[in-house]
Write a structure and sequence with these properties.
Blueprint: E1 3-6, E2 14-21, E3 29-32, E4 39-45, H1 61-77, H2 99-115, H3 137-149
Antiparallel strand pairs: 1-3, 2-4
Helix pairs in contact: 1-2, 1-3, 2-3
């Protein structure tokens, strides 16, 4: 039998996370096809500014746009409709990140947890108050973490 070798090719915005099936781990995978075998390559999302620093990183439109895309992908995989985002398109430098953006992402993501029968995440500053609560790097990081848990 001839071994079959494959290299995982992540698309933009993702990274190879590992193999499952006839291969495990994240090193190279070679499978001798002497019987029916299955191998799955898993990929994880990579976010811009991978590490957001509290008090240093400014929350930007790209952070919200990426999260919305990730959340809509998770919703589609769960059979939920895409979320009807307020301010569907955020323009960098022209539109501030607001309370409703954060609340909507939390709501849309919580629906995925609920659909999977999982407990909803707990959030920093659970009550986001307009004109009072500043949108912080911690809010974006916890949304990213909750999104990655569901992949």
């Amino acid at each position: 039998m001839t071994p079959s070798t494959s290299d995982p090719a992540p698309t933009t915005g993702s990274v190879f996370a590992g193999w499952s099936g006839a291969c495990t781990g994240s090193a190279g995978c070679t499978v001798t096809m002497d019987q029916a075998r299955a191998v799955t390559a898993s990929f994880g999302r990579v976010f811009a500014d991978a590490t957001l620093t509290a008090g240093v990183t400014v929350v930007r439109a790209v952070h919200v746009t990426e999260l919305r895309a990730a959340i809509d992908t998770l919703r589609a995989r769960q059979g939920l409709s895409a979320f009807a985002w307020t301010d569907g398109t955020l323009t960098a430098g022209a539109m501030p990140i607001m309370r409703n953006h954060l609340v909507e992402m939390r709501t849309a993501l919580t629906a995925v947890f609920t659909a999977r029968g999982l407990p909803a995440p707990s959030w920093t500053d659970p009550a986001i108050t307009a004109a009072t609560t500043a949108i912080k790097a911690a809010h974006i990081m916890e949304l990213r973490t909750a999104t990655l848990v569901l992949q």
